[in-house]
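2024-03-11 09:14:02 INFO worker-7 job=invfold-0412 stage=load source=structure_tokens
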């Protein structure tokens, strides 16, 4: 019986047993890093990942971008070919049984390339010359201009103001390059200008103004120098030439003038202002002329720079001395119905009121500034104002000494000082130096009952423009008038209006 049991058991052990197959386990993917992020287009980006497989091994890798598609097939790789944008990166791994893992994702941002090189002066100049100036109306129409630069950019916080005292005030929020566009180069002053600012990205701003700038309280010397240094000029259509004239000298015969006169010669510019040297020449020419012209009882007084602000007080002094007539000769920067003397503004009305308060004194007024013609309609309402002559009409500018302009050459290029005043003094000198001509002045003065000086100034004004054949003055000495856009004008109470 025992033998049977053992046999059955042994038989059971010899019967084959069928086993169920074990299912493959898919691998798992891991993204270790994607660097750098964000990155710039074209920059090398490193991808690193790995996978695990519990019942086998990882044999393949797949990296895909939501923008660029497949980008890599290894666990570690680099690429610089990613497009600009926000990429969703998916990563999968495959095992030795061809099974792929579930995708894992990460994000990388690829930005436009940033130019690390800051804009330099030459780049800023290109922006001005190529992009800004061609759009300026006055430049398109061919008006004279020059555009000047400051050598270094202005730092954040710099304050830019108009030196005229206007309300224009600019405070820089960033470092910027400064350019000064002068649309009437070399004028005695108030005229259209622009302040141009260019930042380090090439963006720009323009501000309309009427005067040169004051930057952090200081007027940049290079912006008011005449003519400017060629290195400071980035563009322009005006010939840069230093006039070659000398101070005018005058030697007249003894004239036997009948009046004890006062002559006030005023140079209103401060040393930091544009055209200062030309104004000094103009002043010295006036001093020389009137000292040569006056008689022994007449007085010539000069006021320069800050002293120019005392002009009304000097009129009082001459009135107290009994001098009559009083001739006031001014070279200064100016605007409509205003002139800047010694850093202070004076209006046409202030001179009107001073003269009106002394009706028994005769006044002559010679003004060489921009918009000087605007003074005429204010002063010519007074019976005791005999003569007002000005460098230009109310809407024009006055110029410094010009030797050449627009292909023209100055007939009196040996002179110095502002173009109109030197022409006026030259014409007056030709009359005074010729006894026949000056006797004609005396006769006209006697006929109208006015001092000889009044007639001399009026006849000289016509003569300076070549419009006085009676005195043989037929050549226009004022080059700015010949060139155009500068029309001296005046008022003679005893005679026709000068136009």
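2024-03-11 09:14:09 INFO worker-7 stage=emit residues=499
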């Amino acid at each position: 019986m025992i033998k049977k049991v053992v046999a059955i058991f042994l038989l059971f052990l010899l019967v084959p047993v069928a086993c169920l197959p074990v299912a493959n386990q898919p691998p798992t993917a891991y993204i270790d890093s994607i660097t750098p992020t964000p990155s710039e287009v074209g920059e090398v980006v490193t991808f690193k990942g790995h996978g695990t497989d519990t019942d086998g091994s990882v044999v393949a890798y797949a990296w895909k971008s939501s923008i660029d598609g497949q980008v890599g097939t290894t666990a570690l790789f680099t690429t610089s070919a990613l497009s600009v944008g926000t990429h969703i990166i998916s990563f999968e791994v495959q095992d030795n049984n061809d099974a792929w893992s579930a995708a894992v994702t990460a994000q990388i941002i690829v930005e436009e390339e940033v130019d690390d090189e800051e804009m330099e002066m030459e780049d800023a100049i290109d922006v001005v010359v190529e992009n800004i100036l061609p759009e300026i109306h006055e430049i398109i129409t061919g008006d004279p201009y020059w555009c000047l630069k400051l050598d270094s950019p202005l730092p954040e916080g710099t304050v830019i103001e108009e030196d005229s005292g206007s309300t224009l005030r600019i405070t820089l929020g960033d470092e910027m390059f400064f350019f000064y566009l002068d649309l009437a180069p070399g004028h005695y002053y108030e005229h259209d200008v622009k302040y141009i600012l260019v930042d380090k990205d090439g963006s720009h701003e323009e501000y309309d103004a009427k005067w040169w700038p004051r930057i952090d309280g200081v007027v940049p010397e290079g912006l008011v120098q005449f003519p400017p240094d060629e290195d400071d000029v980035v563009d322009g259509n005006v010939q840069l030439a230093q006039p070659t004239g000398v101070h005018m000298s005058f030697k007249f015969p003894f004239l036997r003038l009948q009046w004890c006169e006062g002559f006030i010669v005023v140079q209103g510019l401060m040393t930091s202002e544009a055209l200062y040297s030309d104004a000094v020449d103009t002043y010295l020419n006036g001093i020389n002329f009137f000292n040569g012209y006056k008689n022994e009882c007449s007085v010539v007084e000069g006021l320069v720079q800050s002293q120019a602000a005392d002009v009304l007080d000097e009129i009082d002094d001459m009135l107290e001395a009994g001098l009559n007539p009083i001739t006031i000769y001014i070279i200064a920067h100016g605007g409509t119905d205003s002139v800047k003397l010694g850093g202070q503004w004076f209006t046409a009305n202030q001179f009107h009121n001073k003269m009106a308060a002394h009706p028994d004194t005769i006044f002559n007024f010679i003004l060489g500034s921009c918009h000087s013609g605007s003074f005429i309609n204010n002063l010519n309402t007074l019976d005791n104002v005999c003569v007002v002559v000005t460098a230009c009409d109310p809407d024009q500018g006055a110029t410094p000494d010009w030797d050449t302009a627009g292909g023209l050459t100055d007939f009196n290029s040996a002179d110095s000082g502002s173009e109109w005043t030197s022409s006026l003094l030259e014409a007056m000198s030709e009359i005074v130096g010729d006894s026949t001509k000056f006797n004609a002045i005396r006769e006209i003065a006697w006929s109208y009952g006015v001092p000889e000086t009044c007639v001399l100034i009026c006849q000289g004004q016509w003569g300076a423009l070549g419009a006085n054949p009676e005195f043989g003055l037929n050549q226009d000495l004022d080059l700015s008038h010949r060139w155009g856009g500068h029309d001296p004008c005046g008022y003679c109470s005893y005679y026709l209006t000068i136009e």
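2024-03-11 09:14:09 INFO worker-7 stage=report msg="Confidence is low (pLDDT under 50) at residues 1-15."
2024-03-11 09:14:10 INFO worker-7 job finished
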